[in-house]
Structures are given as structure tokens and as C-alpha cells.
Amino acid sequence: MNDHRLADLEQRLRRIEDERAIERMIASYGPLVDAGDAEAVAALWQADGVYDVEDWLMAGRADIAAMVRSRGHQDLIDRGCVHFLGPAVVTVHGDQAVAVCDSTLLVKHESGYRVARGGANYFHLQRSPEAPDQWQIVKRITRRLDGAPDARSLLVDGIAGRIR
User: Fold this and answer.
1) CATH number for the domain including 81?
2) 118: left (phi over 0), alpha (psi -120 to 50) or beta
3) Domain SnoaL-like: where (predicted)?
4) Within 13 Å and on the Cβ side, how many CA atoms surround 99?
5) Do the Cβ atoms of 159 and 132 come closer than 8 Å?
6) Secondary structure in 3-state letters for the chain
7) What region does 94 belong to: left with phi over 0, alpha with psi -120 to 50, or beta?
């Protein structure tokens, strides 16, 4: 095997490992937020990361942790809920990446679970400077999939791998 071919294989393996790490990180959001683990949820973001969900803009880990600890969220998990994200489509651009996925929030009712919302989720991610194999969210934008063009444009930009 020549040096060029070996370098190509290493690059391809690195991309696959990066994609898998990002997919795993995104998939962990639901179980962590359903468990109410505010610190672990907040740690998915960079220290100054942004979570923009409809009319709620959270800037920084403290805001994100506060959302998990909020009465509204605690009522959801006390009642019984499931946040499901995925599968994610990931595009890696060196130390930056874009991912997109749909999400579903199920809430327990007397007769079972009901869909409370369906969303489009766009992620801009960056490799952590402290841990090069770890990725963190720079910005997550979530919009309700209600037919509005904003949610559809998140999906289109995410699939195309465009950094917003």
C-alpha cells in the first residue's frame, strides 16, 4: 500500500469516526433530557453555544441547564415523555460539521402516548479544542414541522451541509 492510499484511508476513517461521534452525541440528547440530567445536556453545547427553539433562545450552558430544570420541563418528565431525535444526516467540514434530523416529542396520557410535537433540527457543530475526538454544538435550531417554510429550509440546509 502506498503512502497516498494509506493517507486516503486514514482520512476516510476519520470522517466516519467523526460522523459516528456526532450521531451518537445527537442521539444522547433525548435520553439525557428525559432523565433530567441538566449538566449532561448542557455539556453537549460549547460554553457559549446557542439553542434556538421557536420563541425561546438559550445562549450558553447555564441557559440550557436552566431549561432542563424549569418547571415546564420537569412537569413533562414527571408525567412521562420521550424526546426522540434521529437519525441524523451529518456533513463534516474539517473541524466544523452540520447535522440535521427530525424529532418527535411523545407525552404520556391516560390511554398511552400522544405526539406533542414534531420538529426539524439543524445543528452546527465544532470539534472540541480540549478533546479532538469530541464534538460540541455551536448552534441548534429547532422549528415545529407545521408546514412553515422556516422548518423546511432548516432541513434543506442541513441535508446540503450548509453552515448557517
Assistant:
1) 3.10.450.50
2) beta
3) 14-140
4) 28
5) no
6) CCHHHHHHHHHHHHHHHHHHHHHHHHHHHHHHHHHCCHHHHHCCEEEEEEEEECCEEEECHHHHHHHHHCHHHHHHHHHCEEEEECCCEEEEECCEEEEEEEEEEEEEECCEEEEEEEEEEEEEEEECCCCCCCEEEEEEEEEECCCCHHHHHHHHHHHHCCCC
7) left
Each residue's pLDDT tens digit, 11-52? 999 999 999 999 999 999 999 999 999 999 999 999 999 999
Residue pointed to by grid coordinates 415545529? 144
Residue 106: which residues within 8 A CB-CB, separation 6 or more? 81, 82, 84, 113, 114, 115, 116
Q: How far apart, in Å, do the first and last CA atoms of the chain sit? A: 40
- What digits encode the pLDDT tens for the residues 96-134? 999 999 999 999 999 999 999 999 999 999 998 888 889
> Which structural domain, as residue segments, surrounds residue 27?
3-160
Residues in the chain: 164
Is pTM beyond 0.90? Reply is yes
Q: What grid cell was written down for 31? A: 435520553
